[in-house]
Write a structure and sequence with these properties.
719 residues; Rossmann fold; Dimethylsulfoxide Reductase, domain 2; seven-stranded mixed β-sheet; six-stranded mixed β-sheet; 24 helices; 17% strand
C-alpha cells in the first residue's frame, strides 16, 4: 500500500476547514481524513460533514457516468461527449424557437463552493444571451442585498468579532451553520469562547435555545416571525433613551432622516411588541441596554431564520438601521481585518455608499413585476417562470448542484413546473429527487478530485482574516468513470452552440479549453496573492501584510444613509397595523403553533442525504416541540403527528426539545419524497415545503417565500 498525504480544505459549506488526507495511491481512495492543524484559519477543526469525504467520494450511491432517460423512464449510460452533443442540439432548437430566456440555469449550494463553476454558470448564460439565472442566494438571504440597495452601505470595511464588545445574533446559529459572513465560520465555538474570555458580550434572539444561545449573556425567545417588530421596538427605545451615536447620525444620516425614523417607529412600544411576540416584560430593554447603552462597538447579525420569515426585507433594513444609528462601523484609522483576497485591492474609506437601487433599474420581470438581484432572477419566481406562457417562458432548466425538488417552497407547484418543462438537465453526483426527473444527468468531479480556491462572490468578506489557500486535485477521477468539471459542462455547451464565453473578464479560447488552474489564475486578482504565490502554502496563508486601515472620507463623499425611504416608510406603517394581531391566522383560519425552520448538524441542506453513515444517524427530520407542548397533546418523543397549514398537511415524528419555547414546531426543510410518493416518514422524513404557498406568502421585492413562522395545527396520528 503506497500512502500519500495531501492538504486541502473542505468545500461543503462556508467553514472551509483545512483538511489533511491520506490517500492510497494503488486504489486511488481516501483512507484517512482529519482537520489540518497547520491551517491558520481552522487550526485542526473539522465537523462531522467534512469527515465523511471517504464515503462521499467512494460510496456506492455516487453516479460515475452520464445518464440519458429512456422512453420507459429508466436511465441508460451514455458517453459524455455524445450527451453534450445531444443536449446542445436540444438547447439550440429551443433557443431558435423561443429565444435565449427559454433556457434557465439553477445553481445550488452543491456547486456554490467551486471557484470555477460559480463564475462559469453566469458566463454561459451571458454567452447565450439568457437572463434566466437562478441561484440558491435568492431563496436564502437576498434581503441583505435589498437592504443595502435601499439604505446604503459603508465603504470602511467589515467589523470583525475581535473588534466588537457585543454581538447580537438574530435568528442565526453560526456555531452549527458555520456561516455568518466572516464572523464565525471556522472553529466557531473556540473563536467565540476566546472572544468572550476577552470580554465580548453575546445577545441571542431566537425561538429556541440554540447551540449559539448557550453562550449568550442575554437570551430572549420570541415567537418566530416577529423579528421586524422587535427591531422597530429596539430602534424606538434606543432613540427615546438617547443611546444612539449622535455624532455619527448627524454626519452620516442627517436630521430629517432621523426625525422620520423616530416618527415611523413610534407605535412599536416595548409592552405592545413584547405582548405580540410573547416575550417577558423587560426582555427588549435588557437587549437594548446591553447592545446600545453599555456597549460601544458591535453589530446585529441576522441569518436564515428571520430571512425566511414574514417581513424579511423590512427586517433586514431595520437590523442594518439599528447598526447605523448606533454607529457600529469601522472608522478612519481602524484596522480592516478581513476582506476578499480574490478581488483587486481597493482602499477602505469612512464614508457612505449611496443607496444604489440597482434592482429598481432593470426591466421588471413578467412574474409579479420583480426585478433582478445582483444579475439574478429571484428563485421564488422560478415555478411561475416555467408555468406562465408567453415570451420569456422557461422551457429548459439546467440544475447544477441544487436539489430543487426538495428545496423549493410550495413543493407541489415546483413539481407541476418540473412536469411542464420541455427539457431538464442535472449536473449532480447523486440520484436526487431532482436528478431522477431529468432527461440527462452529468456527474461532476467531487471536491478532492479538482483544484480549487476559497469562495468569493459579490465582494463579501467571507473570512475573518485575509486568508487564501490553493486546494490541489488530490484524487484522480474514479477508474473508468466519466465525471466532468462543472465549468467544462458549460464551456462545452457554449462551444457547441457557437458562443464565446468571458470568464472573470477574460475571453476564453473556445477551440481549446482552458485548464482548471488557468481559470483559477483568472480569478485571483489581488496583487499580493496571484495563484502561484498561493500555491506556496499547502495549508493556506493569512495575508496579514494585506491588512490595511480605514482612510478618512473624501471631501466629495457627501452621501448619507437613507434610513426611511418612502417605500420603507410604507412598509413600517403596514407593519404597525399588524401590532394588535396576536393570534396565528392564515387564510382566514386560526392556528395553534408556528412552524420554524432549523438546521440539522450533519447536513448542509441536502448535502449528506446519500451517505449511509449520515442517514443511519439521521433517518428523518424530527418535528421538535417543547416538552410541555408534548404533554398537552399526550405525546411522547417518537410519536407520529399531523402538521396542517392552510395549504397542506404532512405527517411527521415528534421529538422533545427543552430549549424550544412553547407554541413552536421546529423542523429542518429539504426532506421527504416527491409529492404523490408514498414513503415512510421514519426513513425519508417529511417535507415542510408542502405546507407553503408561493402564490400568496412572498415578499414583494424579491419574491422570497415565507419558509418559517408558518401557522399550523398539530394532531396525534392514530393510524
Amino acid at each position: 500500500m503506497a500512502i500519500r498525504e495531501g492538504r486541502s480544505f473542505c468545500r461543503i459549506c462556508l467553514g472551509h476547514c483545512g483538511m489533511q488526507l491520506k490517500i492510497d495511491d494503488e486504489t486511488n481512495k481516501i483512507v484517512d481524513i482529519r482537520g489540518d492543524k497547520d491551517n491558520p484559519l481552522s487550526q485542526g477543526y473539522a465537523c462531522f460533514k467534512g469527515l465523511q469525504a471517504e464515503e462521499a467520494h467512494h460510496g456506492e450511491s455516487r453516479l460515475l457516468h452520464p445518464l440519458k432517460r429512456q422512453p420507459d423512464g429508466t436511465f441508460k449510460q451514455i458517453p459524455v461527449e455524445q450527451a453534450l452533443d445531444e443536449v446542445a442540439a436540444k438547447l439550440a432548437a429551443i433557443m431558435q424557437r423561443d429565444g435565449p430566456d427559454a433556457v434557465g440555469v439553477y445553481f445550488g449550494n452543491g456547486a456554490q463552493y467551486n471557484a470555477t463553476a460559480f463564475t462559469t454558470q453566469a458566463s454561459f448564460l451571458n454567452a447565450i444571451g439568457s437572463r434566466s439565472n437562478f441561484t440558491a442566494f435568492t431563496i436564502d438571504q437576498s434581503a441583505k442585498v435589498l437592504a443595502f440597495e435601499r439604505l446604503g452601505g459603508w465603504a470602511g470595511g467589515n467589523l470583525q468579532l475581535a473588534q466588537a464588545d457585543v454581538i447580537l445574533f438574530l435568528g442565526t446559529n453560526p456555531l452549527l451553520s458555520h456561516g455568518l459572513l466572516g464572523m464565525l465560520h471556522s472553529q466557531p465555538t473556540n473563536r467565540l469562547n476566546a472572544e468572550r474570555a476577552r470580554g465580548l458580550k453575546v445577545i441571542v434572539i431566537d425561538p429556541r435555545k440554540t447551540e449559539t444561545a448557550t453562550h449568550a449573556d442575554v437570551l430572549i425567545q420570541p415567537l418566530p416571525g416577529n423579528d421586524a417588530f422587535i427591531l422597530a421596538s429596539l430602534i424606538r427605545m434606543v432613540l427615546k433613551e438617547g443611546w444612539e451615536d449622535k455624532a455619527f447620525c448627524e454626519r452620516y444620516v442627517g436630521t430629517a432622516s432621523m426625525a422620520a425614523l423616530r416618527e415611523a417607529v413610534e407605535p412599536f412600544t416595548e409592552d405592545v411588541v413584547e405582548a405580540r411576540a410573547k416575550l417577558q416584560p423587560g426582555d427588549l430593554r435588557r437587549v437594548a441596554e446591553l447592545f446600545a447603552r453599555d456597549s460601544k462597538q458591535g453589530r446585529v447579525y441576522t441569518g436564515t431564520g428571520p430571512s425566511m420569515a414574514p417581513h424579511s426585507n423590512l427586517m433586514q433594513h431595520l437590523a442594518d438601521t439599528l447598526n447605523v444609528i448606533c454607529g457600529r462601523f469601522l472608522r478612519a484609522g481602524d484596522k480592516v481585518l478581513g476582506f476578499d483576497m480574490m478581488v483587486p485591492s481597493e482602499p477602505f474609506r469612512a464614508e457612505v455608499i449611496a443607496p444604489p437601487r440597482t434592482s429598481w433599474k432593470v426591466p421588471p420581470s413578467r412574474i409579479r413585476g420583480v426585478g433582478m438581484i445582483i444579475g439574478e432572477r429571484p428563485t421564488g419566481t422560478l415555478p411561475d417562470e416555467i408555468l406562465t406562457p408567453g415570451p420569456g417562458q422557461v422551457k429548459c432548466l439546467i440544475s447544477c448542484g441544487g436539489n430543487l425538488a426538495n428545496l423549493m417552497p410550495d413543493q407541489q407547484k415546483m413539481q407541476r413546473a418540473f412536469d411542464a418543462l420541455e427539457f431538464k438537465v442535472a449536473v449532480e453526483p447523486y440520484m436526487t429527487n431532482t436528478a431522477k426527473q431529468c432527461d440527462y444527468i452529468f456527474p461532476p468531479l467531487l471536491q478532492y478530485e479538482r483544484s480549487d480556491l476559497p469562495v468569493s462572490a459579490y465582494a463579501f468578506a467571507f473570512f475573518p482574516e485575509p486568508w487564501m489557500q490553493y486546494a490541489p486535485a488530490l484524487l484522480k477521477p474514479p477508474k473508468d468513470s466519466e465525471v466532468i468539471e462543472e465549468w467544462y459542462f458549460f464551456w462545452a455547451l457554449a462551444k457547441r452552440l457557437g458562443k464565446t464565453m468571458v470568464f472573470s473578464g477574460n475571453t476564453l479560447d473556445m477551440d481549446k479549453g482552458p485548464t482548471n488552474d488557468q481559470l483559477l489564475a483568472m480569478r485571483t486578482q489581488h496583487p499580493l496573492a496571484p495563484l502561484e504565490e498561493i500555491k506556496k502554502y499547502p495549508s493556506g496563508k493569512i495575508y496579514y501584510e494585506a491588512q490595511t486601515t480605514v482612510l478618512p472620507p473624501r471631501p466629495e463623499a457627501t452621501a448619507t444613509f437613507d434610513v426611511v425611504p418612502e417605500d420603507i416608510g410604507g412598509e413600517i406603517a403596514a407593519l404597525a397595523a399588524e401590532l394588535g394581531a396576536t393570534r396565528h391566522t392564515d387564510g382566514g383560519q386560526q392556528f395553534t403553533h408556528l412552524l420554524s425552520s432549523r438546521r440539522m448538524r450533519d447536513f448542509y441542506n441536502t448535502v449528506g442525504m446519500f451517505l449511509p453513515t449520515t442517514r443511519k444517524r439521521n433517518p428523518y427530520n424530527p418535528a421538535f416541540l417543547n416538552p410541555e407542548d408534548l404533554a398537552a397533546y399526550g405525546l411522547n418523543s417518537g410519536d407520529r403527528i399531523r402538521i396542517t397549514s392552510d395549504h397542506a398537511s404532512i405527517a411527521a415524528i415528534v421529538q422533545a426539545d427543552a430549549g424550544l419555547r412553547r407554541g413552536v414546531v421546529s423542523m429542518a426543510h429539504a426532506w421527504g419524497p416527491l409529492p404523490g410518493e408514498t414513503k415512510d416518514t421514519a426513513t425519508h422524513g417529511a417535507s415542510t415545503n408542502l405546507l407553503i404557498s408561493i402564490d400568496r406568502d412572498v415578499e414583494p421585492l424579491n419574491s422570497m417565500p415565507r419558509m418559517s413562522a408558518i401557522p399550523v395545527n398539530i394532531a396525534r396520528m392514530t393510524d
